[in-house]
Design goal:
The chain is an all-alpha fold. 83% of the residues lie in helices and 0% in strands. The chain is built from five helices and no strands. The chain is elongated.
Length: 151
Amino acid sequence: MRIRVRLLTTATATVVAVAVAVLLTGCSSTPAEELEDWWSSGGDSSVKSLSDTSGRVNEVSTRPMDDWTPACQELLSQVAKAKKLDTIPSENARGFWTESLTLFEHGGNECVAGAGEKDQPRASAGIREVQKGVGRLASAVSLIRGDLESK
């Protein structure tokens, strides 16, 4: 009887271990499929929002400084939303994506602070950072598209 109990316990433990391993690894998906999921689960709309709002920041930079704050605040709002997305699964694009968010956030904060203090050099420096972020975002999008097309 003891032998049967030990065999049953060993067999049960093995089945449980295999089940746990399957649950932990889940269904295997390719990097392109993971990127496609990221893109369709908010990545695409986040890229569009960041592109639109950073473009607005660039556009208002030729207007009086009082017009800068709302555009920069909206960009900061879009950056906060983008940061809530899962990590971008494209190793190729991840650096540019992260750098664009950093530039948008720091530049947006400097723009808001500078405009609030009527410190045009500080606000202008913030806008220049946002403009650098636009280039990094464009690079990230180009790499994302390339990764999606290669699947």
